[in-house]
Design a protein that fits this description.
This protein is α/β, with parallel strands linked by helices. The chain folds into 3 domains: 147 residues, no CATH class; 127 residues, no CATH class; 179 residues, Fe-S hydro-lyase, tartrate dehydratase beta-type, catalytic domain (fumarase). Strands 14-15-16-17-19 form a 5-stranded mixed barrel. A 4-stranded mixed sheet has the order 6-2-7-12. A 4-stranded mixed sheet has the order 8-11-9-10. The protein is built from 15 helices and 19 strands. Helix 1 crosses helix 4 and helix 12 runs parallel beside helix 13.
Length: 509
């Protein structure tokens, strides 16, 4: 009988979480490299170049691919002949591994988990507890698949209880555009169909743990109805023209995964969960011989892509920013930001709103007049870093506060990722402000543009505190201009039309 020792299991979980924080799965990198080579949209090609460059930097520097280092998801297949050498519960061992990983002194990861979800929402400070699922199987070993799922992609999860005669293709094509770009495409879609509502969700999540193989599937051709459906969805979703980061282009998804399960004759439950540009998962097996060892990939396998700022990029001095200058920016224009900006995301915006509601105004030392705010929750720095990976968070979560911020604080520019909703866009137009988009999935690359960082308010909020960053040549794209034109509306429409009328193929060759 195999004995799985407590220390071996905990160490294996911790090591795997560290490993996936800075190593993309090679299948993702290979598929993304092919997408880069064939991309015709300059904006999308630039975004993919940033993601690929960031990926290689993280592999070399062993720092997180994304500032959102995720909530831990685990799938375990436990052999029924296994004996555990511990007095702890399985949950306690998993969560101890999470604590060790997320507080590793050489690569501290961001603690994003809050308890409880409805009321206090207090950060647990160590990213525990994990979400895990256990299946008892024959055998004498333990198989573990571990993933770190970012909030931006998880929040775009969709579910429908379709009628048996309804088309899953129609539902997917209707639903994907409603997801926006907050899930940081190009990534993959995991689809689960069958079972019950909760089983369909679990199937979709499990499917995201499978290797990307769309390139190989297209090369060999479909061998089943499921293969045919995957290819159809892959081609039709990409034909929508959403593209990398929602900027329009040929590749929105690199793969579509599908898992099925028997269901009730009256039902057709379907769940869809996207995986983002920071796809992170690994698999290991424990057989009682010691902790698992994950083999680092060779850096030679990364595409030879190095992002550099384009020659048409405009440098902006944030310290002398004016409304007139903001009004001159054009949709889709690339800017390189220099000078000081403030940060703030969900919790900080809520605090500011509460302060204004009580008549107190902004906290001491915080002045947004003619300034920009960056929606970010950075990773803590290690060694000689000024700040850890510091990519943008999904901007739509701040839409409800945008009118208040623009009206009451003097703010004139906002930086985040993905699209803005109609209410926020109207506020931007009304106040002649602008929204700038940084690339989600390029957090370590972005952090290299930050030359100084200090907390100026709400320190107790941890990564959600208000910081002041001093940046040099931080790359952004004008996503909503002062007239309210949004590239996340115009670019996908333009590229879907190009794909249709010019019959541009959306398959990876």
């Amino acid at each position: 009988m195999t004995v799985i020792r407590e220390d071996d299991f905990i160490q294996s979980v911790a090591d795997a979480l560290q490993f996936i924080s800075y190593y993309h799965p090679l299948d993702y990198i290979e598929h993304l490299g092919r997408a880069y080579e064939r991309e015709q949209s300059p904006a999308a090609k630039d975004a993919i170049a940033q993601i690929l460059t960031n990926s290689r930097m993280c592999a070399e520097g062993k720092r997180p691919l994304c500032q959102d280092t995720g909530i831990v998801n685990m799938f375990l297949k436990v052999g029924m002949d296994v004996r555990w050498g511990t007095r702890r519960s399985l949950a306690d061992m998993i969560n101890e591994g999470v604590r060790l990983a997320y507080n590793h002194p050489d690569n501290k990861l961001r603690a994003s988990v809050v308890d409880d979800p409805l009321f206090a929402r207090k950060n647990t400070r160590d990213n525990s507890p994990a979400v895990f699922h256990v299946e008892l199987v024959p055998g004498e070993q333990v198989e573990v698949t571990v993933a770190a799922k970012g909030g931006g992609s998880e929040n775009k999860t969709k579910f429908a209880m379709l009628n048996p005669s309804d088309s899953i293709v129609d539902w997917v094509l209707k639903t994907v555009p409603t997801m926006g770009a907050g899930w940081c495409p190009p990534g993959m879609l995991g689809i689960g169909a069958g079972g019950t509502a909760e089983k369909a969700m679990l199937l979709a999540k499990e499917s995201l743990m499978e290797p990307l193989d769309m390139h190989e599937l297209l090369a060999r051709g479909p061998q089943s109805k499921a293969d045919e459906l995957r290819i159809e969805l892959y081609e039709k979703v990409n034909a929508l023209g959403i593209g990398a980061q929602g900027l329009g282009g040929l590749t929105t998804v690199l793969d579509v995964k599908l898992k099925l399960f028997p269901t009730h004759a009256a039902s057709k439950p379907v769940a869809m969960i996207p995986n983002c540009a920071a796809t992170r998962h690994a698999h290991f097996v424990l057989d009682g011989s010691g902790p698992a060892v994950l083999e680092p990939p060779s850096l030679e396998q990364w595409p030879k892509v190095t992002w550099t700022a384009g020659g048409n990029s405009k440098r902006v001095n944030l310290d002398t920013l004016t409304r007139a200058e903001v009004a001159s920016w054009k949709p889709g224009e690339t800017l390189l930001l220099n000078g000081k900006m403030l940060t703030g995301r969900d919790a900080a915006h809520k605090r500011i709103a509460d302060l204004f509601a009580s008549g107190q105004g902004l906290p001491p030392g915080v002045d947004f007049t003619n300034r920009a705010i960056y929606y970010v929750g950075p990773v803590d720095p290690v060694r000689d870093e000024v700040v850890g990976p510091a990519g943008p968070t999904t901007a739509t979560r701040m839409d409800k506060f945008t009118g208040m911020m623009l009206e009451k604080t003097g703010l004139i520019a906002m930086i985040g990722k993905a699209e803005r909703g109609p209410v926020a866009i109207e506020s931007i137009r009304k106040h002649q402000a602008a929204y700038l988009m940084a690339v989600g999935g390029a957090a370590y690359l972005v952090s290299k543009a930050i030359r100084a960082a200090r907390v100026v308010a709400f320190e107790e909020l941890g990564m959600e505190a208000i910081y002041e960053f001093d940046v040099k040549d931080m790359p952004v794209t004008v996503a909503v201009d002062a007239q309210g034109t949004s590239v996340h509306n115009t670019a996908p429409a333009e590229w879907s039309e190009k794909i249709r009328t010019l019959k541009i193929p959306v398959r990876v060759a």
